[in-house]
Design goal:
Dna Ligase, domain 1; 2 domains; globular
Length: 135
C-alpha cells in the first residue's frame, strides 16, 4: 500500500512531512528520532524535532508506526508490521527484524503469571554475519 493511501486510510492528511517520515522509515528500517531529523533536514531544513515527534506519535496511535524500546538505548521507530523480534548487532549496531511467532510466548506468560501481556519487544544481542566474516 502506498504511503499516501496508508495515511488516508488512517484518516491522516498525506502531508509532505509525514510522507517523508514514512519514506525515511521504509529506507532505514529502524531509526531514532535524531536519525529521522538528520535525513529529513535535507528536504525540510526548518522542520523541528518536536514536529517530527508529534507526527510519529500520531502515526503510532493509528498503528502505522511502532516505537521500539531497547534497554539502555535510544528508542527506535519502524513502520508497523507483523509481530517479530529484533536482532541487535553488538559490533556494528545494525538492527535486523527476525520473524518469529511471539504469541506463544505471550500466552505462556499469561498462563503462568495471570498477567495480561499488552505488548512485547523482544530483542537478541548478536554479532551479525557481516561482523563475523573475516575481512
Amino acid at each position: 500500500m502506498s504511503h499516501i493511501k496508508l495515511l488516508k486510510t488512517n484518516e491522516l492528511k498525506a502531508t509532505p512531512q509525514r510522507l517523508c517520515i514514512l519514506d525515511t522509515l521504509r529506507e532505514c528500517g529502524h531509526a531514532t528520532l535524531e536519525d529521522i531529523q538528520k535525513i529529513i533536514s535535507a528536504k525540510f531544513p526548518t522542520l523541528s524535532l518536536s514536529t517530527i515527534y508529534r507526527n510519529l506519535n500520531e502515526m503510532i496511535q493509528k498503528d502505522m508506526v511502532s516505537e521500539v524500546k531497547f534497554a539502555n538505548k535510544k528508542d527506535y521507530f519502524e513502520i508497523a508490521k507483523e509481530k517479530h523480534v529484533h536482532l541487535v548487532c553488538q559490533k556494528c549496531k545494525k538492527i535486523e527484524d527476525f520473524e518469529i511467532k511471539t504469541d506463544e510466548i505471550s500466552r505462556q506468560i499469561e498462563e503462568q503469571t495471570g498477567d495480561k501481556v499488552l505488548a512485547n519487544t523482544i530483542s537478541f544481542d548478536v554479532i551479525c554475519k557481516d561482523c563475523l566474516s573475516p575481512k
